């Protein structure tokens, strides 16, 4: 038997897995799904192919699969890049707060 045959989402409206407003509902399917690991493995393999083009682009991953959001799968696939992006955001936010503090002091 194929793992897909055991998927809890079989027969469900697949649109919910690609609708940001309904992702909690989609994740509730995954939470009780007996083939989450297989589903995630398949998603990671599909999303890590050159056919997708710039496969490191977070935007090319889409929807809930294997119990994870697209962005979570990207972080799982490229933890180093995601750490660099997070560090850049922290530095940018610190710089913004410092700029605002200096503006307040000079006002
Ligand atoms: S883990 Fe989620 S998306 Fe994957 S088969 Fe199960 S219910 Fe469907």
Task: Summarize the structure in short.
53% of the residues lie in helices and 0% in strands. The chain is an all-alpha fold and 107 residues long.
Task: Walk me through this protein's architecture.
With 107 residues, the chain is mainly α. It has one domain. Helices cover 53% and strands 0% of the residues. It has 4 helices and no strands. The longest helix is centred in the last third of the chain and has 28 residues, at 79-106. The radius of gyration is 19 Å and the shape is elongated. The N and C termini lie far apart (70 Å). The mean pLDDT is 88. Iron/sulfur cluster binds at residues 7-9, 17, 29-30, 33, 35-36, 39, 65-67. The site of iron/sulfur cluster has 13 residues, from helix 1 and helix 2.
Write the layout of secondary structure elements.
Elements: H1 23-31, H2 36-47, H3 70-77, H4 79-106
Helix pairs in contact: 3-4
The structure holds iron/sulfur cluster.
């Amino acid at each position: 038997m194929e793992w897909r045959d055991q998927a809890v989402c079989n027969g469900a409206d697949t649109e919910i897995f690609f609708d940001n407003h309904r992702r909690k509902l989609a994740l509730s399917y995954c939470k009780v799904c007996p083939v989450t690991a297989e589903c995630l493995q398949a998603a990671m393999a599909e999303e890590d192919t050159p056919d997708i083009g710039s496969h490191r682009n977070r935007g090319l991953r889409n929807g809930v699969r294997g119990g994870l959001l697209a962005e979570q799968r990207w972080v799982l696939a490229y933890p180093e890049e995601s750490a660099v992006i997070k560090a850049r955001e922290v530095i940018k936010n610190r710089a913004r707060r410092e700029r605002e503090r200096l503006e307040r002091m000079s006002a």
